[in-house]
Design a protein that fits this description.
It is a single chain. This protein is an alpha/beta fold. It has ten helices and nine strands. It has helices at residues 12-17, 33-42, 57-67, 81-90, 102-111, 122-130, 146-153, 173-177, 193-197, 201-212, and strands at 21-25, 47-51, 72-76, 95-96, 115-116, 118-119, 135-138, 161-164, 185-187. The strands form three sheets. The chain has a four-stranded parallel β-sheet. Helix 2 crosses helix 10 (201-212), helix 3 (57-67) runs parallel beside helix 4 and helix 4 (81-90) runs parallel beside helix 5 (102-111). The structure holds 3-phosphoglyceric acid (3PG). 3-phosphoglyceric acid binds next to loops. 3-phosphoglyceric acid is lined by residues 24, 139-140, 165-168, 187-188.
Length: 217
C-alpha cells in the first residue's frame, strides 16, 4: 500500500492522524527491532512508539531510524528532559510521555521533538495546553474513565484531540475511535510478547493490518 511521505519531524497531530492505532512497543532484544518495525509497516502501521523501559530501547530506536526508513519511530515512556534528549539523539522523531511535566514539555519544545503528553485529569490538560500541547495521550484510558471521560472532556476541551492508551483492545478500540475528540488509540496488542519471542512477524503484520483497517470518526 502506498503511503504519503512523513516530514522528518511530523506535528503531534500528524503522528496521531497517520493510522488508527499507535503500537506501544516493549523490546528486550535489540535484534528484534528492525524485523518488528518492518512487520508493522507491512501491515500499514508506521508510527511506532518504542518505550524507554528496557536497557535496549534506545538501541532499538536507533536501529529502526537507520534501517527502516518507511517507519517513523518515536520514543514512549519519556519521563524527563534527559529521556527526551536521549531519544532525539537516538533518532526518535516523536515522543510520548505517560504524564506531563513542564520540564518534559520544555525539553521537547527546545529539541523540536513533537510530544504527545499523557494526561488523566482536567488540570493536566490545562497545563499541557498552556504550554502549547493540544494533541494529548489519555493515559491510562480505561482505568481513568474510558470513553465516558472523553465524552465529558469534549465540552470544556473541545479543541483537544486525544490518543487514549491503556486497556485498549481490538474489542473496544472502535468505541473510542468513534468519538469525535479521538484521533487514534494506542495499545500493546499489536506486539504480543509471545509473537515477539517466536519471531512471528507474519502474525504481527496481520495484527497491524487489522488495526490499520479500523474505522475512525
Ligand atoms: C503502556 O504504557 O503500557 C500502554 O498504555 C499500553 O497499555 P496496554 O498494554 O493496555 O495496551
Amino acid at each position: 500500500m502506498a503511503m504519503n511521505p512523513v516530514p522528518q519531524r511530523p506535528t503531534p497531530a500528524e503522528v496521531m492522524q497517520d493510522a488508527p492505532v499507535i503500537p506501544v512497543i516493549v523490546l528486550h532484544e535489540a535484534a528484534q527491532a528492525v524485523p518488528l518495525a518492518r512487520a508493522l509497516v507491512a501491515g500499514g502501521i508506521r508510527m511506532l512508539e518504542v518505550t524507554l523501559r528496557t536497557p535496549v530501547a534506545l538501541a532499538c530506536i536507533e536501529a529502526i531510524a537507520k534501517e527502516v526508513p518507511e517507519a517513523v519511530v518515536g520514543a514512549g515512556t519519556v519521563r524527563s528532559a534527559a529521556d527526551a534528549q536521549a531519544a532525539a539523539l537516538a533518532g526518535a522523531r516523536f515522543a510520548v510521555s505517560p504524564g506531563y511535566t513542564r520540564a518534559v514539555g520544555k525539553a521537547c519544545h527546545e529539541l523540536g521533538l513533537p510530544l504527545l503528553p499523557g494526561v488523566a485529569t482536567g488540570s493536566e490538560i490545562m497545563r499541557a495546553q498552556e504550554d502549547g500541547y493540544t494533541a494529548l495521550k489519555f493515559f491510562p484510558a480505561m482505568q481513568a474513565g474510558g470513553a465516558p471521560m472523553l465524552k465529558a472532556w469534549s465540552g470544556p476541551f473541545g479543541d483537544v484531540k486525544f490518543c487514549p492508551t491503556g486497556g485498549i483492545t481490538p474489542g473496544n478500540a472502535r468505541e473510542f475511535l468513534a468519538l469525535p475528540n479521538v484521533a487514534c488509540v494506542g495499545g500493546s496488542w499489536l506486539t504480543p510478547a509471545d509473537a515477539l519471542a517466536a519471531q512471528d512477524w507474519d502474525r504481527i503484520t496481520r495484527l497491524a493490518g487489522e488495526a490499520a483497517g479500523l474505522p475512525r470518526e
